[in-house]
Each structure stands twice: as structure tokens, then as C-alpha cells.
Amino acid sequence: MTLKGWILAATALATTAIPATIPGAALAQDGEKLRFVVVSHIGSNDPNMNWLTMAMEEFGKKYPDVEAEYISTNNYSIQEHVRLLEQAIATQPDGIAVPIVSPDAFEGPLRRAIDAGIPVVAFNIADGRPEGERIPYVTYVGGDELLTGRKLGEYALSQVEAGVVPAPKRVVCASHDSAHEGLKKRCAGMREVMEAAGAQFDELFIGAEPATARNTLQSYLSANTDTNYIFTVAGWSSPWAWGVANEMGLSPDVDMEGVTVLTVDEGPVSIEGVRNNHVLATNSQGFWLQGYAPLEWLYWNVKYGYAPQQDILTGPIIITKDNADKWADLVRSVFGEEAYNQQNTW
Amino acid sequence: MRTPMRALVRSQSFGAVIGVVLMLAVFSIVDFSGWWRSQTLANVAHFSAILGLVAMGQALVIITKEIDLSVGSVYGLSGVAFITLEPQYGVAGAILAALLIAGLVGLVQGLLVVKGRLPSMIVTLGGLFTARGLIYVWTGGTVNNFSEAARSNPLTRMFGGELFGIEAAIFWMIGLCIALNIMLWGTRFGNRLLATGGAQDSAESRGVRSDHVKIATFTLCALLAGFAGIVTLADKPQTHVTLGDLMELEAIAAAVIGGCLLSGGRGSLVGAVLGAFIITSFRYELIALGAPSSWFITFVGVVLIVAVIFNQSLARRAGHSV
User: Fold this and answer.
1) What is the pTM of this model?
2) Residue A341 touches chain B, beta carbons under 8 Å
3) Is the Cβ pair A211, B140 closer than 8 Å?
4) Tens of pLDDT along B146-201?
5) Which has the closest alpha carbon to B84: B139, B148, B161, B141?
6) Phi, psi at residue A261, to the nearest 5°?
7) What is the DSSP string of A82-150?
8) Residue B166 DSSP SS3
């Protein structure tokens, strides 16, 4: 046999052998459904869950041989998230998609799952540690939170140069979850840009309870009167920040006076904040793709052994006054007109 | 002779009064210009009023030797009900419905504690989860907006507006504090409430229906929490499903700092409001001094322990067994 013949034979052997060694492949061959579990921290307390569950419905239509389940915490508790993850692993699914909210807390259960042959795709939040140290998941599908903060900060500075908003003197990053790695990175990205521009930068844990958050933010603004930028790392807290600043007479709309508000997410609150000139900019991290693509990669990994060679970034895209109308149309088409209007709490 | 000073020293809110005086003295020394600003005081007073409303209900329950862990969730559920039901029932109808929901939760919990002979901690813990779960299911993660017409409705302004530049919540809290104090110290029901918590067997032997008293108190506590939720959202209707999250702990802390003993029969509504004032003030001042806001919870813990030790020693000196 020639060398070419040996190569062809080896390839043919490999092609027939690989599916049999891949977990879940046997199930698929038997005609049983594969079962993927999405273990998320984006629960029914977070409107962004709709993006993910709607995307999963679309996945279900395209891949009827997969049963995809969505389970989530309803509060900002890493312990509860880990407990849900452990429970999901115990049911021996054919694949798991999970945001790495805390690498330390998730390392043990996920490594055990991977060792047991359950493929894992990280979504929404990656394990930020260097390659080799991080949890050996198949791939990461989601935004880059550091980049989110950085890009929003860079956009704000471009608007300073254009004479749209004042130069930052003190920036506060208002976070509702002090343990959330992704939120910390959003703040860190913004800090990087703003400190380089000569501004003071503080992170403030405001909590998720609206009255307490307002009280905390108002206290901060009263004590730090030079604050002129507020970055809320959740879209739903942007009206609180704007409201507090407005009540304090700090002129929080987008103009050359007073405070400038920046936020995140492509929900109706964030987009309408931009369209109504209350918020300078927000971002999209491609939530719909984060609900769909991890399952597709799990499917292709389980069935055919595919694994991307690098992370798959679904964002960030900066949403500004220039493109907010298009985003509003897109979100309306996903959520529906009525839900969109109801969720606009401005 | 009972001089006013002696009466104050023997009063159940004395610990909280001392706490407030000490706190104000320290804040004046470390941050005089920041603390004694009208903006600061308005901020602290406003949130103290909201927490004070919830804490007064909690104090009443603690006086009956029970506890209500559900107040934060009931506060959230009523607030969410107020916003969500407004398009269907109008502002007045939504307020009534929200209060009805709160009252119903309190009534059911009271019945379960009394008739089911179940520990209030367990029943109200169940209430905490159930009410929070209802919020999630009802809203699907997003609380609806509150229309411009509803925001400018006179009734909404009455609950959440301002009078002479002062937030309505503060007037509501003061008014209800006076009314509840009259109820507690000047009516037969109040007397029975104190007797139920102090010595239930003895009270029952004298004909006090402690079961009725406790059910009424749980209902009243939930109504106050629900009312606080409505007052909060009438003022600032942009909210989230986390409304009232962990508020039960701050309300219990405020009641205990204010002189309520978990052994029952002793407590003060004024003290509970002062406790709420202390908690809110600490949050402000820690942030003002540049401490990370996550330290706040640690300080509440320290203040709580100090307050319990102080209040217990005061109670012992007053001849109360604790």
C-alpha cells in the first residue's frame, strides 16, 4: 500500500471509530434524544432570560433529536448556582452549558463532569484564567466583559472629544453583585480607560434591591460630589441611577452638563434609555447567540467531535443614539411590541 | 417620683435613643459638614421611613414572641402588585388589591402559626420563598412600567409625593407610628398583644385570646410591609423583581436594635424606627467615609450584637426576665 493509501485507510478508520468513542453518540445512534442542560445564573429575576430561552426554542426546532433544559438560580447566589450545577451533573446529561460565574467555585464540579465524559461549553462568562489553568471546557461562547467596559469607556471618551458630554472627573461603577466575575470585569474595563483619561474611579456595591440601591448610590453621590459618570453594570439599574442623579439636580441626561450615565445590555430599558437621551450608550453581548450557539457546539461536539480552536465572542457591540432605533426594532421583533413597551420603565 | 428622664431611661427604646445620640455625636465629629447637610438628612430620613414602616410591623410580631421572615418578600409582592394591577384597576384599585394581597399573606401565615401550631420562623420562611417565587412567576423577570397618567394621579402623589419638600413616606411613617403607639399602649388590643408576648399562659388564663391576637398581629405586620412597598413605588415606580430582597433582615435588625426582645413582651415602635434610622445612617456614613459599601452588612452585625447586649441588660435592670 502506498503512503497515500495508508493515509486514506487511517482516515476512514478514524472516521468510523470516532463517533463510537464520543459520549452521547451511542444514544444518538439508538435513536434516543440527547439531553443538554443549560445551568444559568440568568433566571426569572432577569429579563435577559427571555433571549436565551427563545434561542433554545429555535435550537429545538432545528435539532428535534435534542432535549435542551434550562435551569437557573433566581437570586445572585454562587452557592445556589453550584448546587444546581451539581444536581445537573448528577443526572448525567449529554452536555452542559454554563456561565463560569466564579472559576474557583465551579472548578471542582465541572472538572468532575468533564472527567466523566460530559462535554461542557461555557457561555456568557468565561473562565478568565490563562489557557492551561482554566477549566478545560470545549469552548466559550459569549461576550468579553472586560472588552464591554473598555469599549463603552472608549465610546464615552470619543463623545467627550466630539463635545457631546463632559470629560470624566470621577466615575462610579455601580454593581448589584459583588461576587460576579463578569461584572467585576466590566468595571475593570471601564476603569482602565477612565483612569488612563485622568479620571478617579470607584466601584460601588449597590445591591439588587431597588430602594437600598438608590439609597446607597445617593449616599455615594452626596459624599463624592465630583462624580460625573455613572456606569451601571445591569440595564435595569440604569433608571435608578438616572433617577437618583436627577433628584439631586445633577442633570443626568446626555449633554455637556452634570452626570453622564452608561449602562449595558440590549433590553428595552437600556435601548430606550439611549433613545430618550438618558443614557449615553449601552451594549449588546449577543444574548440570542449565547442561547443558541452553545447548544449547537455541544451537539456537533457530541455527534462528530468538533471543537472550536478558540473562544467565540458574541460581543460587545456598542449601542448608541446612531443605531438604537435598529436595535429597538430587533428587540421588538423578539420580545413583541407589548412586552417591549411594558419593559420600558423609563 | 417618675421624672421624664427616669421614664426615658426605663423606656424600652432607651437603648436606641442612646445609640442615635452616640451615632450623631460620632458622625458630627468625623464628618460634620457631610452629615448635617439637608440632602444627606433627606436621603437618610426617606429610606429610614420606608424601613421604619416595615420594622414597626416586625416589632409588633416580635413583641408577641414570634418572628416574620416574609416581610421583605411581602413588601416586594405588594409593590409589584401595585404596579402590575394598575392598568386593570386604576391606582386606587391597585392599592387596595396590593394591600389585600399583603393582608392575605399575613392572615394565612398567622393561621398556620396559631392553628397549625407551627414555628413562625418556618412558616414565614416559607412565606418568604412563596411570595418571592410569586413575584418571579407573575412578572417573568420584569416589572412593568407605570404610566405617566398613573404617576401623576393624586392618589399616587399622596402616597409617594412630597409635602413642603419632604417625602410623603416620612409623614406616613410618623402618622402610623403615632397611631400604632396609641393602639399598643392605649387600647385593649395593645394590652393583650403585650400580654400575649410577655406571658402567654397567664394572659390566656385571664381570657386573652392569644391566637386571635397573633393572627391579627401577623396580618398587621404584612399590611405594614405591603403599605411600605406601595409608598416606595408610588414615589419611584422603576423597580425590579428583587424589590424587598433581604429587607426582612434589616427590619428584624432595626426592631432588635430598637429594643425588641426575641423573648417577647417587650419592645418599642419608636425604637424600631430609631433602629431603622441607625441602620440607614450607617450605610450613608460608611460610604461617605470611603469604606467599601459591602462593609455595611458587617457593621449592621456588630451594631446588632452590641444593641442586643445593651437592651438585655436594660431589660434585666427593669426587672424583665430575658
Assistant:
1) 0.78
2) yes
3) no
4) 988 999 999 999 999 888 889 999 999 999 999 999 999 999 999 999 999 888 88
5) B139
6) -110, 135
7) HHHHHHHHHT--SEEEE--S-HHHHHHHHHHHHHTT--EEEESS---SPTTTS---SEEEE--HHHHHH
8) strand
Report pLDDT digits (tens) over A260-290: 999 999 989 999 999 999 999 999 999 999 9
Is some CB atom of chain B closer than 8 A to the CB atom of A206?
A: yes
Q: What is the pLDDT of residue B207?
A: 83
- A277's grid cell: 437621551
Spell out the domains of chain B, with CATH numbers in brackets: 15-314 (1.10.3470)
CATH code, A145-284+319-343: 3.40.50.2300
Model pLDDT for residues A155-185, shown as the tens digit of each residue: 999 999 999 999 999 999 999 887 778 899 9
- Residues of chain B with Cβ-Cβ distance to A209 below 8 Å are 242-247
pLDDT at B232 over 50: yes
B294 lies within 8 A of chain A by CB:
yes
Per DSSP, A320 falls in state -
B257 contacts B303 by C-beta, under 8 angstroms: yes
Q: Do B145 and A239 touch (CB under 8 A)?
A: no
Q: Give A47 to chain B, closest Cα distance, Å.
A: 5
Q: Which CATH architecture has domain A21-143+287-314?
A: 3-Layer(aba) Sandwich (3.40)
The residue extents of the domains of chain A are 21-143+287-314, 145-284+319-343
Q: Distance (Å, rounded) from C-alpha A309 to C-alpha A286? A: 20
Instruction: Give the other-Cβ count within 10 Å of B247's Cβ.
Output: 26
B10 touches chain A (CB under 8 A): no
CB contact at 8 A, B260 and B268: yes
Q: Is A179 on the interface with B (CB under 8 A)?
A: no
- The pLDDT tens digits for A15-67 are 334 333 344 444 444 568 999 999 999 887 677 888 899 999 999 999 999 99
Residues of B with Cβ-Cβ distance to A239 under 8 angstroms:
238
